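From the methods appendix. Each design record in this collection lists the tokenized structure first, followed by the designed amino acid sequence. Records were kept in a plain field format so they could be parsed without special tools. The example shown here is representative of the layout used throughout.

RECORD:
FOLD TOKENS (127 positions):
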């Protein structure tokens, strides 16, 4: 690219190797982290109050209700709880249902305020 200036006129010629006459526009917006109008030293707002964890019996009841009304209503799933370990047993009709059951168990446990738990999947697939 060659720039020529003369008598207040600026002309730009494009060489064969440069397909754009002007630089390409940015394809992504610049992301600015932080709130507008605040200085970097300002304190951020306090996080929301943590949810008090529900008991194992409450989580178990919520899981059974979710399994009876959700995508897995046609399957037979039993839930056992012991020391932050959720064990799923029973039968499902599709292999994908095992993954759905784990995902729903994790979601219900997290919504119940549990942070350190494990889901043990012992579901059998019955064609």
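DESIGN:
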């Amino acid at each position: 690219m060659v720039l020529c200036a003369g008598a207040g006129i600026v002309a730009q010629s494009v060489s064969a190797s440069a397909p754009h006459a002007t630089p390409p526009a940015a394809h992504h917006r610049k992301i600015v982290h932080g709130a507008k109008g605040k200085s970097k030293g300002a304190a951020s707002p306090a996080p929301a109050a943590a949810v008090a964890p529900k008991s194992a019996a409450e989580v178990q009841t919520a899981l059974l209700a979710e399994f009876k009304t959700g995508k897995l209503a046609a399957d037979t799933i039993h839930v056992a709880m012991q020391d932050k370990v959720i064990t799923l047993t029973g039968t499902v009709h599709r292999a994908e249902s095992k993954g759905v059951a784990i995902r729903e168990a994790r979601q219900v446990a997290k919504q119940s305020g549990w942070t350190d738990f494990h889901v043990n999947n012992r579901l059998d697939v019955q064609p």
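APPENDIX NOTE: The chain has a mean pLDDT of 77.
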